[in-house]
Amino acid sequence: MALLRLMALLLGVFGTSVAVEATEAPIQALLQEHGEIIAKSSRKTIAPAIDALAASGLGDARTVLEKWQAKELWLRKADGRFFFVAPHGDGLALIDIASGAEVGTAGKRELKQLKPNSGIRGMIGAALVQFQLRDPDPAERALALDAIARDAEASHLEVLRSVAPDESDPVLRARAERMQRLLTIRFDPDAASQVAAIESFRSDLGVDVRAALNPLLTTERRVAVEIPANANLAQRLTPGTDALPREAAVALLVEAGALPPPIDAETRKAVLVANIAGGVVGGVAVETLSTDAARQTAYDALAAAGLAEPAPGAAEINAALAAHVFFDAFLLQNPAVTAAAAAVLESIELTLALNQTADLALDALSLASIYFLAAIGLAITFGVMGVINMAHGEFIMMGAYTGYVVQLVVPDYTLSILLALPLAFAVTFGAGVAMERLVIRWLYHRPLETLLATFGISIALQQIAKNIFGTQARPLTSPDWLAGAWVINDVVSISYIRIAIFFLALVFLALLLVILNRTRLGLEVRAVTQNPRMAASMGINPDRINMLTFGLGSGIAGIAGVAIGLFAQVTSEIGQQYIVQSFMTVVVGGVGSIWGTLAGAALIGTLQKGIEWLNPSNTLAAQTYMILFIILFIQFRPKGIIALKGRAAEA
Amino acid sequence: MTDAAFSAPVRRPFAMRHPSVLVFLTLLALFTLGVTVLSEAFGLGLISTSFVKTLGKTLCLCLAALAMDLVWGYTGILSLGHMAFFGLGGYAIGMWLMYARTEIIVTASLAAAPLPPTPEEIREGIATQIFGVVGASELPLVWSFAHALPVQLAFVVLVPGLLALVFGWLAFRSRVTGVYLSILTQAMTLALALYLFQNDSGLRGNNGLSGLQNIPGLEATGQDVLSVWFFWASALALGLGYLFCAWLVSGKFGNVIRAIRDDEARVRFLGYPVEAFKLAVFTLTAVLAGIAGALYYPQAGIINPAEIAPIASIYLAVWVAIGGRGQLYGAVIGAAFVSLVSTWFTGGQAPDLDLGAVTVRWVDWWTVLLGLSFVAVTLFAPKGIGGVIAALAERRAPDRHGQDLGPDAGALREKEAER
Amino acid sequence: MPRLTRSLTGLAAAAALATPALADCPIKVGVLHSLSGTMAISETTLKDTMLLLIDQQNAAGGLLGCEIEPVVVDPASDWPLFAEKARELLTVHEVDVIFGNWTSVSRKSVLPVIEELNGLLFYPVQYEGEESSKNVFYTGAAPNQQAIPATDYFLEELEVEKFALLGTDYVYPRTTNNILEAYLQDKGIAPDDIFVNYTPFGHSDWSKIVADVVALGADGKKVGVISTINGDANVGFYKELAAAGVSADDIPVVAFSVGEEELSGLDTSNLVGHLAAWNYFQSADTEINAGWVEAWKAKMGEDRVTNDPMEAHYIGFNMWVNAATAAGTTDVDAVRTAMYGQKFPNLTGGTAVMLPNHHLAKPVLIGEILEDGQFDIISQTEEVPGDAWTDFLPESAVLTSDWKDLGCGMYNTATETCVQIKSNY
Using a CB-CB distance cutoff of 8 angstroms, which residues of chain A are in contact with residue B379? Predict the structure, then answer.
């Protein structure tokens, strides 16, 4: 201990001019020595401080590093000394970093909190690995593995190799072992063990594997008179092919100095301007130089007179192209390693493509279930009853806001969601029934009027929501057991929220099918839909049935609102985003059929994801083309995918 | 309006047979004269330039509403996409306005260069000016004719017309009718708006075309004068449009389209090519809307995809509904009334309503009032404001089949009434 | 508090009556922010900010012996309406200055009107640059005051080697991403290592895009996301990010349009550590900011937060007041001349200076999202002078803006000519 102190002292004396008191704790002295860069807190300069701490062998180095990483290390502005702190009245109590004793108090403005950014935190984490990997607490060891995954260093390979075989926790052991193989690929200088490690990852889907393998295959495009013997050749290229267009080959030659640079319009113009003499350049009057051809003539004249660089001719270019070879070479010199990496990557390729397709299919399924949930209420009001309800989207909004209000009252997320679902149904059922009674029943014979009246209700409801809840998006938070995602592997995963929505959609599909086909109410609904007069004469009250059906459709919209609010934003405009899509889902699927709506949602969801996959950089284009497709689809199949036949279709 | 079929065989002059046309045109002329006299540029200066612009734009909206009335009130096709045609007309003229204005600026700045500019350099300069803002410097293909005013003027008519022709042909051929057609037209507007929203569409994406109020070549003319000129042009277009529509619906063509509205199947059995009639009306009204748009946007100053959003077309339908379908003057009244009242309420000029416990701020509650008034109009006054005027003039729709059918009952078709 | 303000206002009015008026009283300030429609979300806050600032100034004795009267209009998120309302403010209400606009398209809409009628507009929002108008003062950040420093932070501090530029499909993200692409390539990032995606406004289906971003890590380079996603769409994006378990340590996200207001719409516990770059955060630890936050909360309620565009209005309004006082008039040209070199303390410490190119010199802050929806400021630069024309696109690198000496907003330094006096709208 005394020796260490002496060492620290010496370091301090040699390092900077900071006067180190004899009583200074070594850790404080070490920090003081690097005080400036620690306070500056930039990843580019911080390394010596972290290395010094990690290598100091001081018992409290780990604590300091951990506290520093957690933004719990403070600096007193007056004298630059470091402290831990504890709250103390308005200010803070200072705690000595070595002894842990309270040594005074200070106001917040007298201190500076050290806030290492995540880059520095990663470096600290990497430095902590050596301590944590041997920690008895498995959680600490897991942290160390996380740190290696983020910021691996060559030194970690040694540590991993020494601790991995002794790891008692089987999960951690598997991780450590895998990590060790990955680090072998990256850092082991021995080609044979590299190749062995590479081979061990055959058909492995992990992103980390590809992240380790791909850098090995980095290539450089080169041009030479002949391929050098020591080059690890990836492929040879022929100029004028897709892989290497002629212009690119010429550019490579220019870069290599084998060709003079071509004369572009800007250069030509600059040369012309520089050679203007008395309103004439290259024998051509300046005022006539307003065409490309005239400028070229003038330039050629200048070049002929030796006043400008002549542009390389086609023959010269062809000769240069013929005289050189173009090729991609691996940066890594060892062909065994690159070949093994390429082979393993290829083995991953097919599995990867399959899994990507599966992931896309899951996304499509999820989108389809969202569309289905949003549209199914409409399938009932529009499809079965023939009522155009433009305010359907606002029922979705009402459901989402109901969820938000419930969460305000009931802070437990699980309970609040369980309460919100029936409550949202009740609220929108009530709203739907009220709307049917007050407005829609007067307009059953005038569908186009219904469209206008419900549109009026739609904009009124939207504005009322704005007036009540404000225009800011409101939080609707899912319970913890719905947070996160179901991760099948590094490629295929889907969030639990979306799975829940999928099941919710299934439940409603089943429920509606049962209600419409197996219950008295369903029978009456179908009867009223097909022939209200006949149904009335059979003792069914069409008014009551219409009211209930409309309420049911609206209520489902409310539940959809809660579900949508859980994964997207709750605003007064949430309904607007779904209304047109919902109408199209119903129309494409075939009006009047629950199965049709399902088919419509599936088609639209798949289609949208498919187009997004084709053009990943522009999601807006995907939506545009999807709508265009729907328009065309309806032209050729106006009754939708599942068209009702017979008398029901005429009703 | 009297059906021509019931009128006396003696052909009196058109205006005599349709006094409402004469009344409308007279009122429009008086209104134009009044605005001119009160304007800042040509008269007493009692009406501000911004209000002249508002009035001019309102006249263009009236023209669009007229088209909407023709296609919906007379033919029974509830198109929720006519503002798309309106917007396309605006884009067509906007491209020329932007190109020509930028060309003047670019030529002026290049004139100082040591070499006279080549056409390519000018074009490139214009492209950088117009598209620099959205991070591109090449003129997209759709701008090929932007330098030529006659071509772009032709596009004002051709682009909306062609789109309507193709879309209508596809839709009517597949017998898409009623609410399906409404949804389909809505989808068309949405697709167009989304397309224009993309930067890749070459029409400056969300930013759209701006600075359209500055007319190239008329830099020296102040906006106070220009606003009145555009007001005159809008009034003229509305007057001519009204006359044309009135003439159209008064003849045999008008009878056929009204018959299509009332019972499409019967008209088809009578041997009329229903689809051709519908397509003609659809295309014609699209062209009218395009012309209205071309006059509207130089007054508004900017056009962008939000103008084409589906909600704009729904508003158009609502104006016609409030004004009264199946009467040309109804459409005009509806568009003028609702859009001007809207301006008044959202402008913050409307006084707050103090209800004791709460104060109703119209900025917040105007939309609610507007929405509820749609409901009220559809429920209680399907004839709209125009219906009130008709009632005052003590004229009734001809009694057909003993049912209150036709435009006065909200385009109620007989088939629907039987249910 | 309101009563106090009112009595102070009364005093100020009395004082104004007593002293000879130097300008036409009252001095009118136009407030051109959408109070309805999609942009009301953000802009209503700025209208309230202006009303608070005007109240404070009136309580402090008004301006030039006059009371300041706000004229609030509602352009309803309708871009043509912005132009109409601007004309109305300038010609009918005859306001002396306008504070307003949020979106770039609305600014482009009012530009011709403001320039034609020689008005004065203070624009408070971070924007894409590539514009300079004689009649507009840009108090928000230009790209080099937000995007570029944030990208530098990614490159240097987080050692990000692969970039996902995600944005909403409109002008600000498009232009910003263009500048960033050029800048990154300058810094040696290969074009293949820059992934760009544009989504519509209010986009909510983020699962595929988040999966795409995660998949970018497959070639062993550290991935970072630069987000110019606008408004509500962020909620869904961050929720999906949290669900996918993307930690800020693995794939950091820096956002240019996410502030305290946007975060109040979601549960931030899973977003801790993701970043935002602004010129102001509510958490800035200064006396003057504490006072401002307190005044705002007193006016609007305890749960309201302050944000960057509010600070821009705070600085802009106070500079305008000082410039008008210095000029002794509210005449646009006199005030404009007096604006150059105006200094005013930032809420975050340091001093903002108005440059001859109508932009401010302001510090750039980078904050990490905290559990409570606030930001932990982990980096604060010196004042960075705003640059109207970016240095990273070849066409605009040669352009400069100097309204004081050159009298030109688009001056080509290569040919030494003024490209145009009016701005490009």
Answer: 439, 442-443, 453
Residue-range definition of the domain harbouring residue A428: 352-650
Q: Which CATH architecture is the domain C144-283+367-385 placed in?
A: 3-Layer(aba) Sandwich (3.40)
C268: closest CA of chain B, how far (Å): 30
Give the model's pLDDT for residue C163: 94
The label of the residue with tokens 């899951």 reads A362
Which of A289, A455, A631 is nearest residue B115 as measured by Cβ atoms? A289
DSSP string, A341-388: HHHHHHHHHHHHHHHHHHHHHHHHHHHHHHHHHHHHHHIIIIIIT---
Distance CA(B42)–CA(B36), nearest Å, equals: 6
For residues A502 and A371, membership in a common domain is answered with yes
Of A95, A76, A75, A92, whose CA–CA distance to A84 is shortest?
A95
pLDDT average, residue stretch C157-186: 89
CA distance B397 to chain A (A): 19
Any chain A CB within 8 A of the CB of B412?
Answer: yes
Cα radius of gyration (chain B): 23
* B98-127 residues touching A, CB cutoff 8 A: 114-120
| Cβ-based contacts of C240 with chain A (< 8 Å) | 495, 567
- Which residues pair with residue B169 across a beta bridge? none
**Domain total in chain A:** 4
State the CATH architecture for C2-141+285-361: 3-Layer(aba) Sandwich (3.40)
Q: How far is A445 from chain C (nearest CA, A)?
A: 34
Interior angle at CA C115, CA C112 and CA C119, nearest 5: 120
Does A168 lie in the same domain as A110? no
Total domain count for chain B? 1
- The residue segments making up the domain with residue B10 are 4-346+381-417
Q: Is B152 on the interface with C (CB under 8 A)?
A: no
Q: ipTM for the complex?
A: 0.82
CB contact under 8 Å between B120 and A292, yes or no, is yes
Q: What is the pLDDT of residue C18?
A: 40
Summarize pLDDT for B341-352 with one digit per residue, the tens. 887 876 666 677
Those chains having 3 or more beta-carbon pairs within 8 angstroms of chain A are: B, C
Please compute the mean of the pLDDT values over residues A21-39 and round it to a whole number.
79
Report the residue from A287, A460, A532 with minimal CB separation from B372.
Answer: A460
| A145 and A111 both lie in a single domain | no
The answer, for A91 touching chain C at a CB cutoff of 8 Å, is: no
Asked whether the predicted pLDDT for residue B259 surpasses 60, the reply is yes
Predicted pLDDT of residue C235: 81
Q: What is the mean pLDDT of chain A?
A: 84
- Let me know if residue B372 belongs to a domain: no
Residue with tokens 């330098």: B147
Burial category of A189 from C-beta neighbours within 10 Å (exposed 0-12, middle 13-18, buried 19 and up): exposed
Instruction: State yes or no: pLDDT of B404 exceeds 50.
Output: no
Measured distance CA(B129)–CA(B133) in Å, rounded: 8
Contact B324, B406 (CB under 8 A): no
Q: Does B206 touch chain C (CB under 8 A)?
A: yes
Q: What pLDDT score was predicted for residue B30?
A: 94
Report the C-alpha gap between A605 and A372 in whole angstroms. Answer: 9
The model's pLDDT over A499-524, given as tens digits with 9 standing for 90+, comes to: 999 999 999 899 988 988 899 988 88
Of A97, A120, A143, the residue that ends a domain is: A120
Q: Give CA separation, A506 vs A273, A376, A513, A549, A550, in Å.
A: 74, 11, 11, 20, 21
Q: Is the peptide bond before C26 cis (omega within 30 degrees of 0)?
A: yes
Q: Say yes or no: A153 and A109 in one domain.
A: no
CA angle, B286 as apex, B281 and B289 as ends, to 5°? 125
Q: Looking at residues B295-308, what average pLDDT do you find? A: 91
Tell me the whole-structure pTM to 2 decimals.
0.85
Interface size B-C, in CB pairs within 8 Å, comes to 128
Burial class (CB in 10 A: 0-12, 13-18, 19+), B325: buried
